[in-house]
Amino acid sequence: MTKPNISILLTPLEHDGYIRRSGHPEDGRKTVISITAEGRELLQRYLPGNREEIAERMKPVRT
Fold first, then answer.
1. Which residues of 38-47 are buried (b: 16+ CB within 10 A; e: fewer)?
2. In this structure, is the dihedral angle defined by the CA atoms of residues 6, 4, 24 and 10, taken in order, positive or negative?
3. CATH number 1.10.10.10 given to 3-62
4. What is the pLDDT tens value at each position of the chain, 63 positions in all?
5. Which of 11, 31, 36, 59 has its CA 20 to 30 A from that of 3?
6. Angstrom distances, CA of residue 52 to CA of 13, 45, 57, 59
7. Nearest 10 degrees: CA dihedral of 5, 6, 11, 17?
8. How far from 35 is each of 13, 18, 28, 62, CA to CA, in Å?
């Protein structure tokens, strides 16, 4: 995945307050991506349902 593609994915998440970007403390070429409290809450709310849906859809593949 290229840097522009990652930016396209991350910019809306940052705008909505789900992640935070900051400079790397030792390497100015890097960016540190952190999940915010709002982002963590969103994951906790939707991730369990997504896991169940994926497991259900994978049943035909596993048998």
1. ebeebeeeee
2. negative
3. yes
4. 787 889 999 999 999 999 999 999 999 999 999 999 999 999 888 887 787 888 888 888 765
5. 36
6. 24, 13, 9, 11
7. 150
8. 9, 6, 20, 33
